């Protein structure tokens, strides 16, 4: 078993569960030994279930970047002696669902065995046949899942069909982790629009940049390498992980002109579709010599209201996609809800908005933001002309201001981040 699975598992146990010490020692032992030997340890059922579900969740996480617009799903089949006889991890291009891959590995050994899976097995005909039928046919005796499938075509019907075939079904263990893993799938499959995360890196006093003159095109000034990062290396590496989890990233053209960013996923992990780089650019000001335009391979999408024909052709020749949307304000900016709907039509399940201040404010004002990931460095910039996290007119009263629920704190050396929700992705 890949070492990373157990490492992730242990981290989750330490963070999210009150795992007994003996179980941690046992899991530690598995790092260097064969997981199949688990059967020789007398363990209460609940903890064994949690351990195998943890393994299924780790297999599911291997699909991040490879499953969208489908969910991340991992499956583990364990026989009556506690031996792992099959595992599966879904990828969209691989077509087969995780439980089918695990069943194929298990073969005859699936009879009477338990399936551990992070998501309810499907009961509908999609690109593939219903998994519940295959599980019933293979003689699976018990199914332990983390959560119901939020897909309205399934939601509960998979479990019902398994139960009516005499299979013992339980779900709800490690549900919080499982729901977090597939939150963008849940939003997309129910509403056909992406989950929108607003990300920003700022000083403790909420500034994203010093007064504009000093920060303008710092990357271009220093030959493409920025020297004025607010947060440190470890927080910035985490941003790459966040980009890897997303289908699309969006910034305003002002940010492109000021910073000349690349907006690519540099996590180093594989992905099935390139990160779609979306620029809100009402008047098609994107410089043809920007790094974005120079690296475009149909993965840069400009959303504009007015497009001068010659500039449009010039950018399109470079591999930039240009799409016109009706202007929603006097400056010609499109409505961000219309942008989000358009991205949903392109099978974008997750969108990360990375600024600047005008776009951040518009996204909050339009009510499209589902969650925030706000990074803070221990600095205080001060001043009335430095750039705030969100510009515009702001909210008129405390009661109008969006409330961030279920906030979690992450540490990155001396920097930290707040991850929290403005809306429930499963609502
Ligand atoms: C997956 N992978 O491992 C499981 C899924 O069009 P299809 O046949 O690929 O069906 C996709 C749906 O199947 C998906 O929306 C979800 O409801 C369900 N379960 N999907 O992509 C899997 N188990
Ligand atoms: Zn399925």
Topology at a glance:
Elements: H1 3-16, H2 21-31, H3 45-61, E1 74-78, E2 84-89, H4 98-106, E3 114-119, H5 131-138, E4 142-147, H6 157-164, E5 168-171, H7 175-181, H8 183-191, E6 195-203, E7 207-209, H9 212-215, H10 218-221, H11 233-245, E8 248-252, H12 253-259, E9 276-280, H13 291-295, E10 300-304, H14 309-317, E11 320-324, H15 336-345, E12 350-353, H16 357-366, E13 371-377, E14 387-388, E15 405-412, E16 415-421
Parallel strand pairs: 3-4, 4-5, 6-12, 6-13, 8-9, 8-12, 9-10, 10-11
Antiparallel strand pairs: 1-2, 1-3, 7-14, 13-16, 15-16
Structural account:
The protein has 16 helices and 16 strands. With 427 residues, the protein is α/β, with parallel strands linked by helices. The strands form three sheets. The protein has a nine-stranded mixed sheet with strand order 11-10-9-8-12-6-13-16-15, sandwiched between helices. The chain has a five-stranded mixed sheet with strand order 2-1-3-4-5, with helices on both faces. The chain has a two-stranded antiparallel sheet with strand order 7-14. The structure holds ligand AOF and zinc ion. Ligand AOF is lined by residues 70-71, 73, 90, 97-99, 119, 122, 126-128, 131, 149, 151, 154, 189.
